[in-house]
C-alpha cells in the first residue's frame, strides 16, 4: 500500500506467469511477462508465442486460482460451463408493437405557379 492511501498497487516482474485477458474472444489465457513498458502496461508472451501489450487491469496472477476471474456460468445441474464452451446466444423474437400511422397534413396545397419566361425575349 502507498503511505496514506488505502489503494493496493499490483505489479508483476519479468518472467512472472500471468493470466491475460483476450478481449476479442472474451477468454483468459496463460502467458509470461517479458517486459514492463510503464507503471501499468506490460508485454506478455502468450502460450501461442505471440506477444501482447496489456494493461495491469487485464492481467492477474497465473498461479493463484482465487484471483482468476470466474466467467463460468452454472448449468442446469449446477455444474459450471466455461464461457468458451457456452453455445452462442440466440436472438429472441421481440414482442409485436402496434403500428401507429404517421400523422400527415390535411391541408390542400395549391398548384405551383411556374415562372413564365420567354427565352427569345418576346
Explain what this protein looks like in three dimensions.
There is one protein chain. The strands form 2 sheets. This protein has a 5-stranded antiparallel β-sheet, with no helix packed on it. The chain has a two-stranded antiparallel sheet with strand order 6-7. By secondary structure, it is mainly beta. The protein has strands spanning 17-22, 27-36, 41-46, 51-55, 59-61, 73-74, 80-81. Helix content is 0%, strand content 28%. Residues 65-75 and 77-81 have low confidence and may be disordered.
Short description:
The chain is mainly β and 122 residues long. Helix content is 0%, strand content 28%.
List the keywords.
single chain, 122 residues, mainly beta, five-stranded antiparallel sheet, two-stranded antiparallel sheet, 7 strands
Structural class: mainly beta
Number of helices: 0
Helix/strand order, N-terminal first: EEEEEEE
The pLDDT mean sits at 75
Instruction: Tell me the Rg in angstroms.
Output: 31 Å
Categorize the overall geometry. Answer: elongated
Measured by DSSP, the beta-strand proportion falls in 25-35%
- Stretches where pLDDT falls below 50 for ≥5 residues? 65-75, 77-81
Largest sheet: 5 strands, antiparallel
DSSP summary, beta strand count? 7
Instruction: Tell me roughly what share of residues is in helical segments.
Output: under 10%
The neighbouring-strand order within the major sheet is 4-3-2-1-5
Euclidean distance between termini CA atoms:
95 Å
Write the layout of secondary structure elements.
Elements (H helix, E strand, L loop, with lengths): L16 E6 L4 E10 L4 E6 L4 E5 L3 E3 L11 E2 L5 E2 L41
